Amino acid sequence: MLTGDTLARAGIDAIALKPAEHDVSTAGELGVGTIVLDYEGREHLPAPEALATLADAYELFVTTPVRADGFDPLGDDGLVSSLPDAATRVLVAGNPAYLDTHETDRAIAPRLRAAREAAPDAWVGTEGIERIALAAGGTQFELLGRGTEREIEALRGAGFDGSIAVYAPTVLTDDPDETLNAIGGYVARRGAVKRALPEGSPTDAAVGGRAREILLRAAADYALVGDVGTVRERIDALEAAGADHVVSYPARGLSPFRD
Asked: Which candidate, 187, 192, 249, places its Cα nearest to that of 216?
């Protein structure tokens, strides 16, 4: 059973769950206060009853792509009514992997504005739309990156006093092979890493040489990687920079968090 002791020692109090990967029915065992449910296509959206159960047990956030049918505030927003009243929306542009061609062609800015008017307490995902997200207001939901601490410090130094949350893939291990198997593909898609990698390079534990060094360095930049103490230090640094929330995505599943 997940007692939460490992998570507490690592400084993790918010978890991102992906319904296609994680059994949300077991989330009641998590020793955290906040759950962020990632949208992975409407076929993976849990039933309203399951969402209501999560909302009863946790402070629940649900990512809702403003361009996706069902969550489009300027079109089909029929799925919004399936969310519990207690759930807070996280407004995102939406990963093209979960959107069809018609949806990806929709304008983001007017939809974010309309969605924020309908849900003024919503968080706003910034990935790829940083200026639009900042203009929309609300809690800024950042993706952990190489310069996240510096960027947050700069925002605070410029007078931004809104809330800032950081989404961070997490690998509680100092084993490089396990790290690469868990998030090698993820970090390889980041722009700077993709440009640095040799073309056609493996991204899992089979990688070697310079590509392996690039990926392992990138893993430490774009994810929370290492033993419990190392992860705790990175979370402390993010909070010291001005982050209000750090949301951990368990990239190897929930079992590594078991005591």
From this structure: 187
Query: Cα separation of 130 and 249, whole Å?
Result: 21
Q: What is the pLDDT of residues 223-243, one digit of tens each?
A: 999 999 999 999 999 999 999
Cβ–Cβ under 8 Å, residues 157 and 151: no
Q: What are 22's two structure tokens?
A: 């994680």
Place 73 in a pLDDT band, splitting at 50, 70 and 90: very high
Of 10-24, 120-134, 170-184, give the lowest mean pLDDT range. Answer: 10-24
Measured CA to CA, the distance from residue 163 to residue 216 in angstroms comes to 30
Quote the CA–CA distance of 85 and 37 in Å, as a whole number: 15
Judge whether residue 48 has pLDDT over 60: yes
What are the residues whose beta carbons fall under 8 Å from the beta carbon of 197, sequence distance 6 or more?
188, 203, 211, 214, 215
Domain ranges for the chain: 5-172+226-252, 174-224
Integer CA distances (angstroms), 71 to 37, 41, 46, 91, in order: 15, 11, 15, 9
Task: Supply the pLDDT for residue 175.
Answer: 95
Position 257 scores a pLDDT of: 59
Residue 242 contacts residue 152 (beta carbons within 8 Å): yes
CB-based contact 215:205 (threshold 8 Å):
no
Q: Please check the confidence at residue 126 and state whether its pLDDT lies above 90.
A: yes
The CATH class that applies to domain 5-172+226-252 reads: alpha beta
Burial class (CB in 10 A: 0-12, 13-18, 19+), 54: buried
Instruction: Give the DSSP letter of residue 254.
Output: S
Token pair belonging to 231: 């992860």
**Across the strands, what pairs with 89?**
62
